[in-house]
Amino acid sequence: MKKYPKRGSFQDVKLNAEAVGFQIKESYKKARTNIAYSIVKKGCKMVSVTSSSKSEGKTITAVNIAIALAQQVDTRVLIIDCDLRRPRIQSVLEIPVDKGITNYLNFECEASDIVYTSKLDNLDAICCGTIPPNPSELLSSDNMKELIKELSKQYDYIIFDTPPIGVVIDALPIIKQTDGVVVIVRDNVTDIRDYKKTIDILKRSEANIIGVIFNDVEPVGKRKYGGGYKYGYYGEYGY
After folding, report:
1. What single DSSP character describes residue 179?
2. What is the average pLDDT value for the chain, to the nearest integer?
3. Domains of the chain
4. Contact at 8 Å (CB) between 181 and 210?
């Protein structure tokens, strides 16, 4: 006699997991659209991604935004790891790195030596390199400004994965150079006081806050199967 899967079986869980995965992909596509329409300009659009503290999903979100952008036809995307204290782009994208941005900023190599092609079409990456003792000085240097200027001529989008602005302000000069910043908030992890502090720092620095991404939000009716995220405009909802 043929046995059919019972309710709550592995097959049911797998199907629901696939459904949640689809929802997450669609959410990133919506974020991609919102980012594109939030920055109205010709040429390269530069977006920084930050958070209030560690473990809020900042790097994973930045990478997925970059991937979603790179999936568009004829769209060249570069992601740069500016979190020089806790770099993760290299491990997330599984890139074997010899030299990174810190090596370039210390005049140890050329810009062409630090741009790596990822396994994904249209997506390149610049990783950290040697972890430096002076990340703030490197990120605010004239050499960094010139690098950004030159790279902006080669790409349609540049995504900057910056350190949590609520912990250190290393990347504030980078954020101010970009066209907009997206703040990552993780459900049941981010402290509201830290979040308000982050927004206050960005506003006082006159950074252009274009959105807030709520990461790891459990969809209604799907709570036992995993999380997703949703995207909201900073100004529209008054966060």
Report:
1. S
2. 83
3. 10-237 (3.40.50.300)
4. yes
